[in-house]
Write a structure and sequence with these properties.
By secondary structure, this protein is an alpha/beta fold. The chain has two domains: 4-145 and 298-302, Rossmann fold, CATH 3.40.50.2020; 148-273, 3-Layer(aba) Sandwich (Rossmann fold), CATH 3.40.50.2020. It has helices at 13-23, 63-79, 108-118, 148-159, 173-182, 228-239, 258-264, 280-285, 296-299, and strands at residues 4-8, 30-34, 40-44, 52-56, 84-89, 123-127, 142-145, 164-167, 190-196, 203-208, 216-224, 244-252, 269-273, 290-293. The strands form three sheets. It has a seven-stranded mixed sheet, with helices on both faces. The chain has a five-stranded parallel sheet with strand order 1-4-5-6-7, sandwiched between helices. The longest helix is centred in the first third of the chain and has 17 residues, at 63-79. It is globular, with a radius of gyration of 20 Å. The protein starts with a strand and ends in a 6-residue tail after the last helix. The structure holds ribose-5-phosphate (R5P). Ribose-5-phosphate binds next to strand 11 and helix 6.
């Protein structure tokens, strides 16, 4: 008889457990360790031949280690004769580097995709890619899930259906418009004119296209990394007279001191999903503002027992 298993990488084991429950697929026994010289050591201790495997691995920090681990698990499954290998990569690291922005740079998204295909992954399930352009780099099927309906439902219930959606940049306008429509609105959104330096990463804001006075505003974004976008956006909106600012972020990377900065800021609520694990220290810092929406129920329907 054929079986399906979930194989968790080390990046987000709690999420793998939740997906296992939601999809009713058991977590396979796996060794994911390190040799003393730092190299990853992988062994899948289940019957591999003829079975289906879902490797759950977010490409969060340390990104390169998590990519390598994912590739080695896939290789172990390929060599063992797995019938189907599906990579469940809720946060697709390197997805931002989907172009050669400056001469001499690598096309990093494509490199990571080539790795995954070379090691025998048959399909990919992912959540809120930074840019869906990278789907074109894949030769294998990609299931691209969005957390927008999950966020829109929460915001409608908590703050009402008329909450104004504001995109923190032009790149996020499509996501924001979808968010507004999911809340039953016609699709009017605010857009902030943001520019990020390609060399230093510094963020500069030039204003917003709508009057936001006395409004409750929600800012959808695919990820929060250093927090510099949010930290620039919040005062701009507060100065324009908003009543409340809520951020809805699919992937809470929260690198460096982002959690601290957000905790101290005037942001009223930070709503995130659990695609990326937030450590206890950051969770504690953000305890008054953080609300986490579980993503497992959106992923599970794409997995077969
Ligand atoms: C930008 O295009 C992204 O969607 C995010 O808005 C942004 O890059 C988040 O990074 P940070 O938190 O470092 O500003």
């Amino acid at each position: 008889m054929k079986h399906s298993f979930i194989i968790p990488g080390t990046s987000n084991k709690p999420l793998a457990e939740k997906i296992s429950k939601a999809a009713n697929i058991s977590v396979g026994k796996t060794l994911t360790g390190r040799f003393s010289n730092g190299e990853a050591q992988i062994r899948v201790e289940e019957e591999i031949y003829g079975n289906t495997f879902y490797i759950v691995q977010s490409l969060s920090m340390p990104v390169d280690e998590h990519i390598m681990e994912l590739c080695l698990i896939a290789d172990a499954l390929k060599r063992g004769g797995a019938e189907k290998i599906v990579a469940v990569v809720p946060w697709f690291g390197y997805g931002v580097q989907d172009k050669v922005f400056l001469p001499g740079e690598s096309l990093s998204s494509k490199v990571v995709i080539d790795f995954l295909q070379t090691v025998g992954i048959h399909s990919l399930i992912t959540v809120d890619l930074h840019s869906d352009n990278i789907i074109g780099f894949f030769e294998i099927p990609v299931v691209h899930i969005t957390a927008v309906p999950l966020f829109a439902e929460y915001i409608s219930k908590t703050y009402g259906k008329h909450t104004l959606v504001v995109s923190p940049d032009f790149g996020g306008a499509k996501r924001s418009r979808r968010f507004a429509k999911e809340m039953g609105q016609e699709g009017t959104i605010g857009i902030i004119d943001k520019e990020r330096s390609l060399t230093t990463g510094a963020v500069e804001l030039r204003g917003i296209n709508l009057d936001v006075k006395n409004k409750v505003v929600v800012i959808p974004d695919d990820f929060i990394s250093t927090g510099s976008t949010m930290i620039a956006v919040i005062p701009l909106l507060k100065k324009a007279g908003v009543k409340k600012v809520i951020a809805c972020i699919s992937h809470p990377l929260l690198v460096k001191d982002a959690a601290e900065k957000i905790a101290k800021s005037d942001l009223d609520e930070l709503v995130v999903t659990d695609t990326v694990l937030i450590d206890d220290k950051k969770r504690k810092l953000l305890s008054k503002k953080l609300h986490t929406l579980p993503i497992a129920s959106l992923i599970a329907p794409f997995m077969k027992v």
